[in-house]
Description:
The structure holds 2 protein chains of 2 kinds. Chain A is mostly helical. Chain A has 9 helices and no strands. Mean pLDDT of chain A is 81; it is low at 107-128. By secondary structure, chain B is mostly helical. Chain B folds into 3 domains: 1-72, no CATH class; 82-130, no CATH class; 155-218, no CATH class. In chain B, helix 3 (38-90) packs across helix 4 and helix 3 runs parallel beside helix 5 (113-136). Bound molecules: zinc ion (ZN). Zinc ion (ZN) binds at residues 7, 10, 33, 37, 39-40 of chain B.
Amino acid sequence: MHLLKxxxxxxxxxxxxxxxxxxxxLALEELIKREQKNAYASFFYLATEKEDILxxxxxxxxxxxxxxxxLRDPKKFQAWFNQIITNLFNDEMRKKYKRPQQISxxxxxxxxxxxxxxxxxxxxxxxxxxNTLAGELNKKITDAIHNLPEPFRIAIVLRELxxxxxxxxSDITQTSIGTIKSRIARARTKLQESLKPYLIQ
Amino acid sequence: xxxxxxxxxxxxxLGLYIDNKxxxxxxxxxFTHLEYCQECHEKYLMLKQLIFELRKAYNELILDIQNxxxxxxxxxxxxxxxxxxxxxxxxxxxxxxxxxxxxxxxIKFPNARQDLEEMYELHxxxxxxxxxxxxxxxxxxxxxxxxxxxxxxxxxxxxxxxxIASYALIILTISLLIFSTLPQGKTVIEKGLKYFKKxxxxxxxxxxxxxxxxxxxxxx
Lengths: 201, 220
Ligand SMILES: [Zn+2]
C-alpha cells in the first residue's frame, strides 16, 4: 500500500489522470492532492466571501474527480478543470445574486451587462502577515482583483493564475477572442492603476 | 480743409475697400479719390500689403497648429494602439506582424519599454501573492473525495477494521456463553482450549520444522 502511494507521487499529472480514468483511486487521490491548492487560489480571487472558498474548492475537486473519465485528452486537463471551476463559480453567483447590478470598467461597450457590483463587499479576507510590506501588497492586489467586474476577474484569473491561452479562455467563457483580449488588457490597466504606489516608477 | 475731410473719410473706408465690401457708389468715390490723391494712394498700398502679410501669417499659423494637432493625435493613437496590444504581446497572443509593430514602437520610443516592464511586475506580484494564498490552504480533501467517489464512508479504513474486530468479539462472547450453558459445554470448552494450546504451542514448532525441511529439499 505504502509502496504504491510512493510510486504515485512520482507520476506526472498526465499519468495520474490516465490511471484515475482506469479506477486507480490512489492515483485519483494524488491528483486531487496536487490540484487542490490551485483550485483554492482560483476561488480565493474569484469569490469575494471567504466562507465560500473551501466549499467551492471541495465541490470543484469532487466534480473533477467524478467526471475524470469524460476527459478525452489528458493534455487538456488544465483548461477542462478550469471550465469546471468557472462554471461552478458562475452557478454560485447566479444563485446568490438573482438581480445583478451593473458596474463599469471605464467604458463604453456592452461588456458591462450582468456584472455584479461587489465594490461594497471587499476587505473580508485576511492574508498572512498583513502588516509586512509584502502582506500589504498581497491585500492590495486581492482587493484590486475583487473590485474588477466579474467577467474581467474571471479572464485575469484564468490568464494570470492558470496560464490558459486566449483561445481556451474564450472557449470557457463563451466569448470571442477579441473580447477576451480587451478584457485582459483592461483588467491589467485597472490593476496597475490600483497598484501604482507599489510599482517601480 | 475740404480736401482733408475727404482724405479722412477715404482712409477710414480703405479696409472695407480692400476687402471689396463697399457698395458701388462708395467704391467709385474711393477709387476716384485714390486716382489723384498721392497721400491716400500710398496709405492704400501700405494697408493692402499689411493686410496681405497678416492674412498670410495667420493662415500659416493655423495650418501649423492643425498639423501639430494632427501629429499629436497620431502619436496618441499610435500609443493607444501600442498599449492596447501590449497585453496580448506580453501573453504571446499577437499575430507576428502586430508584435513586430510593438517591437518597432519600443525602438522608436524607448520609454514605452516601461509599460512592458510594469506588465512583468504585475505578473510577478500576482504570482507571488497567489503562491502565498496557496500556502494558507491547509485542508486536504484528497482522501475524503476519493472515498466519496468510491461510495465508501469517509473513515472507511478505520471503520472497516473496527467493525471486523467488534463483530469477532461479539461472536466469540456469544458462542462462549451458549457453550457454557450447555451440559457438555464445559467439556467442549476444555477440549477447545486443549486444542488451542496444542495448535499454538505444540503444533506450531512442528509445522515450522516441516517447512524448513521442505525448503532444504528444494534448495539442496
Ligand atoms: Zn486723400
